[in-house]
Write a sequence for this structure.
């Protein structure tokens, strides 16, 4: 019996997040073509979850690698995406085996969408993570990070609703986000996330509730960790890959390259 946290039930996670994945894969491949065409078609997804991007990227000719800190997700992703190399690993300590050759990074397209990177516990862990990804990046490679920025004190609680279905299982998730209370310590910067899942199988309805936190970043804090890691901003886009600057608040794909 899986736990109540969404990540401990990869099949349910995958049902919820499958819609739209083909479009996201197209955007990622397009970002590689526009900003990293001199870098190899080798992709790395930190926090890859159920591995939903890997089959699509492999079909587009990418060699695919990923890691995740949840063993259930890793097991599921290995079955769902046999073409990928998927390891158990954490943001700041993941294995770089196969991602470098003679000390040089091989990865042309690293990516971490939908705020997953905000699962880091602190700025120190974030900088270690970004440096580790940088060490695997080909000199012309890019790291595409999907992140929502915070304007502390100005944000209101918000709610998202996700739905999906597969083979007679219908899933709905209502997620509430309670903004950070301050801009200094990791504790103040913790955005509270509360999830209620409703899973329908025939006449059976199961409800699962869980909570977790995500570390918040103002634009200044986010740009500071990018610099500290020796990366630079190559472009910012909206979810479909069109140029877009989110200003102080909101979600964008940040295309990062090596500063040196
Ligand atoms: C929202 S899911 C995203 C999965 C996938 N990237 C996607 O877009 O569908 C976030 C993932 O981050 C993983 N995660 C959380 N903390 C992590 C850490 N410290 N290191 C690596 N993965 C982590 C979770 O296990 C989960 O699979």
């Amino acid at each position: 019996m899986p736990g109540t946290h969404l990540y401990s039930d990869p099949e349910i996670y995958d049902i919820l997040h499958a819609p739209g994945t083909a479009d996201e894969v197209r955007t990622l491949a397009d970002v590689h073509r526009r900003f990293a065409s001199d870098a190899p078609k080798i992709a790395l997804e930190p926090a890859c979850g159920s591995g939903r991007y890997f089959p699509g990227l492999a079909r587009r000719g990418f060699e695919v690698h990923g890691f995740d800190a949840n063993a259930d997700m890793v097991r599921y992703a290995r079955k769902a995406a046999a073409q990928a190399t998927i390891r158990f690993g954490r943001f700041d300590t993941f294995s770089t085996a196969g991602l470098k050759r003679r000390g040089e990074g091989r990865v042309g397209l690293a990516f971490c969408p939908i705020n997953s990177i905000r699962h880091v516990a602190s700025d120190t862990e974030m900088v270690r993570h970004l440096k580790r990804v940088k060490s695997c990046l080909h000199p012309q490679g890019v790291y595409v990070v999907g992140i929502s920025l915070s304007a502390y004190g100005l944000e209101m609680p918000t709610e998202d609703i996700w739905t999906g279905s597969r083979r007679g299982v219908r899933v709905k998730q209502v997620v509430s986000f309670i903004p950070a209370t301050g801009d200094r310590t990791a504790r103040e910067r913790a955005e509270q996330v509360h999830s209620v899942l409703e899973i329908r199988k025939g006449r059976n309805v199961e409800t699962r509730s869980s909570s977790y936190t995500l570390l918040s970043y103002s634009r200044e804090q986010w740009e500071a960790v990018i610099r500290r890691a020796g990366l630079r901003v190559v472009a910012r886009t909206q979810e479909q890959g069109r140029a877009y600057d989110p200003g102080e608040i909101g979600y964008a794909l940040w295309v990062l390259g090596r500063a040196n």
Remarks:
- The chain is about 25% helix and 35% strand.
- The mean pLDDT is 96.
- The radius of gyration is 18 Å.
- Residues 7, 17, 47-49, 52, 68-70, 73, 90-91, 113-114, 116, 119 surround S-adenosylmethionine (CB under 6 Å).
